[in-house]
């Protein structure tokens, strides 16, 4: 066949696969012709008319005869204007006017439509539940295009509001075109079988389209089978359509073996619903009434390999593969097409491809019933009873989403007895009260607030009570006393304001939902007569329509949130989703380990959500909070895997499954500055690549399923290990150590760091077939560091400068988050405009951030006010969200502000301009300052890249310490980085990224640490300023000092701290034999020391205690455990001269011969164990006096009088040029099971000691 002819035939097939439409057929006919103006006056009708000149026949658009339009007798919300188009037409637009030259016009209205003039359905505009806005004067025309259009014969306009200075007045027009319709009717026992020839089937695509209507909740719409149980079935189940797909591999555990797609709700409403099914091999598109689900089967499954017949309306005979019970469809099909073939047309012509079973007709005349809608909790329907009857007999059907409400109440004759029927917690409760007798309650049914129709039958006669729900009796008989006579009036759904009594005026609200098929005393009630005023009375009802709608279709609950609903709203249960908010839009987790770190979190397992509110879920990773923040993602193959051939077959590759999905891994890698993965090979007579031609015999696969043969440290496809590139392989003629194929174990450890190829998903080692050849390997976790969006920032230097990005797409859910800092009093952060819609975030005042937007319901504002100004040149975090339920704004940790969305208003945010960042389209009220980490719906914007090409804006923003400096704890100093901060712990006794890791040591029996300050002063002098180092000259005189000491011990007596001077002055902190605290000060060599015994509790109890000592001249303040405080006065002096050294642990007599100590204090204490946990603090130098150059020893030494033995019996002595630790002085991290102590003394004097512990 000619290629052009083939392409033309393919186009014809695609066109024929869709239902007939004038737009498809050459696009030569537009469906917007006026339909009402050509109709006779008799085609117009109304609920009432003010006069003959105000009749509905004068209601055509632009008519001036009569009174110039229709006006009802009474202007209230129960009036309507109706048009009969004569036949079903496609309606695409409507237009309205007020009464000609009058003050009568309608400001809002509801549009309803019907096929037969009964069972009306409200037309709901896209994403809006409320009615249409109407006119603002009498003669201007308001025109609305209907998206989507609908098909109907009858239309009704129901005024909701009108000019308060006039009355209801309308002139209308309807636009559209003729509608082609082919119908078939199934009676619940019939079906249609279509057999086609193989040539008519597209090899790549099947398309099935139809419309249906029914009032039955269940039934098979179509079914097609294949071999081995493969089938496709479309079934109506409880008013929802379920498309079942069976791949024919029922024995497989794959989730694709049997798949069900569910769409639609309340489809048993006797209105037309459209269905489109597209099968493209393993891909399925399923659409019901414009809502679509997509499914892609994995592997080679195809849903086109089926038998050449398809049945509609049921499954004829006994289906080969359908084991589930099924019910035939009862209702009508319209415009049924299979791959462009008009099945109904073939059926009407009795073509041989069609086989009809049962009573199949080609018209659609379904019996009608008249439902009643109770619109509000104040609605009621009052119907007369049958007085004088000695029984009560009521039947009806109802459907609702509300779990509670009053269904029925009536006052019985012959006394104050009453019958009350309510819905409570989804169950039916009947209460019967009789004078002089206790009330009798009956509860039946469950889950009755599910939106389905439920039938109720209530009968009281004699002394028997019968209550049935959906055909099941709650109780057959209840013993009643006295005569039961029917009441005068039955109240459905609620009560008039004037009525009181049982069921009325109580805490239970009125019923909201639909009721139909009401029967009282075995007589059916016609609600149309009620509507016409001939029977009963009502308030706030819609008659001849069921206005129940499914607010969970489509579900606005995101990320798997579960939707539940009532009559007028819906809610989302976000439990176990990882998200929060009214629609489960906002992630509970930070977007990276970097963000967790700057929340002040330490290393550990964390959930991160890389795309925030985007579609990816949170992933569990390990965040290693070092100076560089590492993100670690584990997999299922972290242990060493041995590889060896068996039976001559090559080993199979090993697949790795990570704790995060591939999409999550890609998001983590994309955000990171660097990623790597270590792969360690161990080989014995096993090569990575062939020795001669370089043909790889081992390889690995990355996330894109591409095979790679290069190894770490090399460029992609270099096929060399790191040793080959560095030239240090064991055998220089090979590029990998393993390639030498030695008969001994060798190894290649490689680091893969090409981000686009990570993570490793498979590893294959095939060269293990030789005798005695073996291999093993271990794959490390995926490691990434950096976050290229968290610190991405821009500086806005002029009020007229801004950055622009593509239009923000956040129609139904929109969130914006960022950091800002500024000194300006106001400015716009972000703005995006539409024709009338907009969204804006701004600093409205120094202490106010405002989020404003309009989605068609008028301007909405949410403002957060702070007790302190935001323009303090510190980073502040802003997060704004707008969804169909509410709008919220959060700034820093201030209370979040929320504004609910208007009920049944517009929901879709429609924008079309560029997104402006840091300014506006008018170049007014621009922002001066910095914006960082800007994300819209989880998508990060690259501010730095855009700023490089924008005048008045610079990439980056310095000055992070003002905001994050508080994270540097315990004296750590904040250092600025281009992207963030670093905590300098050199002047702290703590370590770690935020100087929070305690530096500690364990002191065994008889051990000590001595630190001489001379060495530190020399080092400091060489590294820092001379003024700082000068503090450590010979005669450093301190008028005061502050020391903090934390410890944990069970031994006494113990020396905790000793500070000496060249002049034989000292400070010592001691635990006495009874565990009490003793502090000794000797500040004059010629006087006796001051010895103070503090009568605190026994501090040698194994618990952690803290002692703070603050001396100011002769006044010494001591605080224990932050509560007990004492003050004493020194008599030995007021100045500490020529500080020499600091000692932790036992004091040695040979070093300190002049120290007045008891023998008990220096002898070995076998029960004494002390742990030094940290050393930190700050010195208070009160008027240091003269400074005399000292002559100090050059070495810090740690030693003891007693031989020290490790726990394993090995003697050890470590000598260092600068300091020594006794063998019994060990880092605290190595002795986690021991008692802990912490020492923290003045920063200038003792911070050097922290470096000892850091090195030790």
From TrEMBL:
It holds the Pfam family F5_F8_type_C. Residues 1209-1237 are annotated as: Disordered. Disulfide bonds join 930-957. Keywords: Disulfide bond, EGF-like domain, Membrane, Repeat, Signal, Transmembrane, Transmembrane helix. Residues 584-635 form the Fibrinogen C-terminal domain. SMART domains: EGF, FA58C, LamG. Residues 31-177 form the F5/8 type C domain. The keyword Signal applies. Transmembrane segments: none annotated. Residues 1219-1229 have a biased composition (Polar residues). InterPro entries: ConA-like_dom_sf (IPR013320), EGF (IPR000742), FA58C (IPR000421), Fibrinogen-like_C (IPR036056), Fibrinogen_a/b/g_C_dom (IPR002181), Galactose-bd-like_sf (IPR008979), Laminin_G (IPR001791), Neurexin-related_CASP (IPR050372). Residues 1209-1218 have a biased composition (Basic and acidic residues). It comes from the Eukaryota. Residues 183-364, 370-546, 792-957, 1018-1199 form the Laminin G domain. GO terms for cellular component: membrane. SUPFAM superfamilies: Concanavalin A-like lectins/glucanases, EGF/Laminin, Fibrinogen C-terminal domain-like, Galactose-binding domain-like. Residues 1-25 form the signal peptide. It is a single-pass type I membrane protein. Residues 548-585, 958-996 form the EGF-like domain. Belongs to the neurexin family. This is Contactin-associated protein-like 3. It comes from Ailuropoda melanoleuca.
């Amino acid at each position: 066949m000619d290629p052009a002819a083939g392409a033309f035939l393919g186009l014809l097939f695609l066109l024929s696969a869709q239902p007939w439409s004038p737009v498809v057929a050459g696009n030569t006919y537009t469906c917007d012709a006026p339909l009402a103006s050509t109709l006779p006056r008799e085609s117009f009708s109304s609920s009432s008319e003010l006069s003959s000149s105000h009749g509905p026949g004068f209601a055509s658009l632009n008519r001036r005869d009569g009174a110039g339009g229709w006006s009802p007798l009474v202007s209230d919300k129960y009036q309507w204007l109706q048009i009969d188009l004569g036949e079903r037409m496609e309606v695409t637009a409507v237009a309205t006017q007020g009464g000609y030259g009058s003050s009568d016009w309608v400001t809002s209205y509801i549009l309803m439509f019907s096929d037969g003039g009964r069972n009306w359905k409200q037309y709901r505009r896209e994403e809006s539940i409320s009615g249409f806005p109407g006119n603002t004067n009498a003669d201007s025309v308001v025109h609305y295009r209907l998206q989507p259009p609908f098909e109907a014969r009858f239309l009704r306009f129901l005024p909701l509001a009108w000019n308060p200075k006039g009355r209801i007045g309308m002139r209308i027009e309807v636009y559209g075109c003729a509608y082609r319709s082919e119908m078939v009717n199934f009676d619940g026992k019939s079906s249609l079988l279509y057999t086609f020839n193989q040539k008519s089937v597209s090899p790549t695509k099947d398309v099935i389209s139809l419309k249906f209507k029914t009032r039955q909740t269940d039934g098979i719409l179509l079914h097609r089978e294949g071999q081995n149980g493969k089938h496709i079935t479309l079934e109506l189940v409880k008013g929802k359509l379920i498309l079942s797909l069976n791949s024919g591999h029922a024995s497989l555990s794959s989730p694709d073996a049997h798949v069900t797609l569910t769409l639609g709700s309340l489809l048993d409403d006797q209105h037309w619903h459209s269905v489109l099914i597209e099968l493209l091999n393993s891909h399925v598109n399923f659409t019901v009434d414009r809502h679509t689900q997509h499914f892609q089967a994995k592997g080679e499954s195809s849903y086109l390999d089926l038998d050449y017949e398809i049945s509609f309306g049921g499954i004829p005979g006994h289906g080969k593969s359908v084991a589930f019970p099924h019910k035939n469809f009862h209702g009508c099909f319209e415009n049924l097409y299979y791959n462009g073939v008009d099945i109904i047309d073939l059926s009407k012509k009795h073509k041989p491809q069609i086989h009809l079973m049962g009573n199949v007709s080609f018209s659609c005349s379904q019996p009608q019933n008249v439902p009643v809608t109770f619109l509000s909790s104040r609605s009621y329907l009052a119907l007369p009873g049958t007085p004088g009857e000695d029984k009560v007999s009521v039947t009806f059907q109802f459907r609702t989403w509300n779990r509670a409400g009053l269904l029925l109440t009536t006052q019985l004759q012959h006394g104050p007895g009453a019958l009350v029927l309510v819905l409570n917690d989804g169950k039916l409760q009947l209460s019967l009260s009789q004078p002089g007798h206790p009330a009798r309650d009956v509860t039946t049914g469950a889950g009755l607030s599910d939106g389905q129709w439920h039938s109720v039958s209530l009968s009281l006669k004699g002394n028997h009570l019968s209550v049935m729900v959906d055909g099941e009796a709650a109780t057959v008989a209840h013993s009643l006393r006295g005569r039961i006579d029917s009441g005068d009036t039955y109240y459905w759904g609620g009560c008039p304001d004037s009525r009181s009594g049982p069921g009325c005026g109580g805490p239970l609200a009125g019923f909201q939902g639909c009721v139909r098929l009401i029967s009282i005393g075995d007589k059916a009630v016609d609600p149309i007569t009620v509507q016409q005023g001939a029977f009963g009375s009502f308030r706030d009802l819609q008659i001849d329509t069921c206005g129940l709608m499914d607010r969970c279709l489509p579900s606005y609950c995101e990320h798997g949130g579960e939707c539940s609903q009532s009559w007028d709203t819906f809610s989302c249960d976000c439990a176990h989703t990882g998200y929060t908010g009214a629609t489960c839009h906002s992630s509970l987790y930070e977007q990276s380990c970097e963000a967790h770190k700057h929340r002040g979190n330490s290393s550990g397992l964390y959930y991160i959500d890389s795309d925030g509110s985007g579609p990816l879920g949170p992933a569990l990773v390990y965040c290693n909070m070092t100076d560089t923040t590492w993100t670690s993602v584990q997999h299922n193959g972290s242990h060493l895997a041995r590889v060896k051939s068996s039976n001559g077959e090559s080993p199979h590759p090993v697949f790795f499954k990570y704790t995060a999905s591939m999409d999550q891994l890609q998001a983590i890698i994309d955000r990171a500055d660097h990623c790597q993965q270590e792969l360690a090979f161990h080989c014995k007579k096993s090569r990575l690549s062939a020795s001669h031609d370089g043909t790889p015999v081992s390889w690995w696969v990355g996330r894109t399923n591409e095979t790679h043969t290069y190894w770490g440290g090399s460029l992609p496809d270099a096929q060399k290990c790191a040793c080959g590139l560095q030239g240090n392989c064991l055998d220089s003629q090979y590029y990998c150590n393993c390639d030498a194929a030695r008969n001994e174990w060798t190894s290649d450890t490689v680091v893969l760091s090409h981000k686009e190829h990570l993570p490793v998903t498979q590893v294959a080692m095939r060269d293990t077939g030789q005798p005695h050849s073996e291999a093993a390997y271990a794959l490390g976790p995926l490691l990434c560091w950096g976050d290229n969006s968290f610190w991405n920032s821009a500086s806005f230097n002029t009020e007229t400068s801004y950055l622009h990005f593509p239009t923000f797409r956040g129609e139904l859910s929109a969130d914006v988050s960022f950091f800002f800092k500024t000194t300006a009093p106001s400015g716009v952060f972000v703005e995006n405009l539409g024709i009338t819609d907009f969204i804006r975030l701004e600093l409205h005042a120094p202490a106010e951030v405002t989020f404003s937007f309009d989605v068609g319901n008028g301007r909405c504002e949410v403002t957060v006010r702070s007790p302190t100004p935001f323009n303090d040149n510190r980073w502040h975090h802003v997060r704004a969200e707008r969804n169909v339920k509410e709008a919220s704004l959060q700034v820093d940790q201030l209370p979040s502000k929320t504004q609910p969305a208007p009920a049944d208003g517009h929901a879709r945010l429609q924008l079309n301009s560029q997104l402006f960042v840091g300014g506006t389209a008018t170049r007014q009220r621009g922002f001066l300052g910095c914006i960082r980490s800007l994300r819209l719906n989880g998508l990060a914007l690259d501010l730095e890249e855009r700023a490089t090409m924008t005048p008045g804006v610079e990439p980056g923003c310095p000055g992070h310490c003002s905001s994050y400096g508080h994270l540097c704890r315990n004296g750590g100093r904040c250092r600025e980085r281009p992207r963030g901060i670093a905590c300098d712990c050199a002047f702290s006794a703590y370590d770690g990224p935020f100087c929070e890791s305690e530096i500690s040591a364990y002191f065994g029996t008889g051990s000590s640490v001595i630190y001489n300050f001379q060495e530190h002063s020399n080092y400091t002098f060489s590294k820092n300023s001379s003024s700082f180092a000068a503090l450590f000259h010979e005669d450093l005189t301190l008028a005061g000092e502050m020391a903090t000491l934390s410890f944990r011990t069970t031994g006494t007596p113990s020396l905790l701290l000793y500070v000496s001077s060249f002049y034989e002055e000292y400070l010592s902190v001691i635990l006495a034999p009874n565990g009490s605290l003793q502090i000794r000060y000797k500040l004059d060599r010629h006087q006796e020391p001051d010895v103070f015994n503090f009568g605190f509790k026994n501090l040698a109890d194994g618990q952690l205690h803290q002692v703070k000592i603050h001396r100011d001249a002769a006044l010494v303040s001591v605080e224990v455990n932050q509560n007990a405080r004492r003050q004493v006065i020194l008599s030995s002096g007021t100045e500490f001269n020529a500080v020499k050294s600091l000692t932790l642990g036992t004091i040695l007599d040979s070093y300190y011969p002049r120290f007045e100590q008891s023998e008990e204090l220096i002898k070995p204490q076998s029960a004494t164990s002390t742990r030094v946990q940290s050393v930190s603090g700050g010195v208070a130098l009160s008027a240091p006096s003269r400074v005399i150059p000292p002559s100090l020893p050059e070495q810090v030494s740690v030693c003891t009088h007693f031989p020290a033995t490790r726990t394993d019996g090995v003697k050890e002595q470590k000598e260092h040029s600068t300091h020594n630790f006794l063998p019994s002085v060990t880092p605290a991290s190595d002795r986690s099971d021991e008692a802990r102590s912490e020492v923290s003394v003045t920063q200038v004097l003792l911070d050097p000691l922290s470096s000892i512990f850091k090195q030790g």
